[in-house]
């Protein structure tokens, strides 16, 4: 299912709810419950999300860190279960954390060697676009400081993250990074 209507507008879609024990524990930060369901960290719930995405979405940095530490190495690299996995509407854990301005979660994810911060969702929204559009300067800063984010990615309207924010500080930060790095 695409998140974009034929006329180019975004579809309005209800936000999903965590439905498995692991997803609920991740979204609420219940570390005790997470310890008992480690073997299910790569399993998707009804929405298509894995616990990693739920923890990032809700800003549960301790749960996210626990999941990252206990994710089987072979799963971390896989496209369908790893750190870059796309869940509901094609969102990655980094995309959900950036959208919510969950800076610590973004930092935990960006510290991973295999993270790809330049993956868009079904609505052609990238993590850096989310952080810029939702007015999260600290999140934008750590994303740029990671050296992994492209400022040249374009959304469905052809805008870069610098063009997709109403906060001058964020725009200047992104443009300065682009001038310095070329990306």
Query: Approximately how much beta-strand content do the residues carry?
Result: under 5%
Uncertain segments: none
Q: Main sheet?
A: none
Number of strands: 0
Order of SSEs: HHHHHHHHHH
Q: What is the end-to-end distance?
A: 31 Å
CATH architecture term: Alpha Horseshoe
How many domains make up the 3D coordinates? Answer: 1
Any idea what the radius of gyration is? 16 Å
Average pLDDT score: 92
The level of helicity is 40-55%
Q: Considering the protein shown, what is the CATH homologous superfamily? A: Ankyrin repeat-containing domain
CATH level 3 topology: Serine Threonine Protein Phosphatase 5, Tetratricopeptide repeat
Work out the helix count: 10
CATH C-level class = Mainly Alpha
Q: Class by helix and strand content?
A: mainly alpha
Shape: globular
């Amino acid at each position: 299912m695409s998140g974009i209507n034929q006329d180019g507008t975004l579809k309005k879609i209800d936000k999903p709810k965590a439905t498995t024990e692991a997803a609920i524990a991740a979204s609420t930060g219940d570390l005790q419950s997470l310890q008992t369901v480690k073997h299910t960290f790569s399993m998707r719930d009804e929405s298509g999300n894995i616990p990693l995405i739920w923890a990032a979405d809700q800003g549960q940095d301790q749960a996210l860190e626990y999941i990252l530490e206990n994710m089987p190495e072979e799963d971390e690299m896989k496209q369908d279960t790893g750190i870059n996995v796309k869940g509901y509407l094609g969102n990655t854990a980094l995309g959900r954390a950036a959208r919510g301005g969950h800076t610590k979660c973004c930092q935990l994810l960006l510290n991973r060697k295999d993270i790809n911060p330049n993956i868009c969702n079904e609505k052609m929204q990238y993590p850096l676009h989310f952080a810029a559009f939702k007015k999260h300067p600290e999140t934008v800063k750590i994303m740029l400081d990671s050296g992994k984010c492209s400022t040249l990615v374009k959304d469905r309207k052809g805008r870069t993250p610098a063009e997709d924010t109403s906060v001058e500080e964020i725009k200047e930060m992104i443009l300065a990074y682009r001038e310095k790095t070329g990306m």
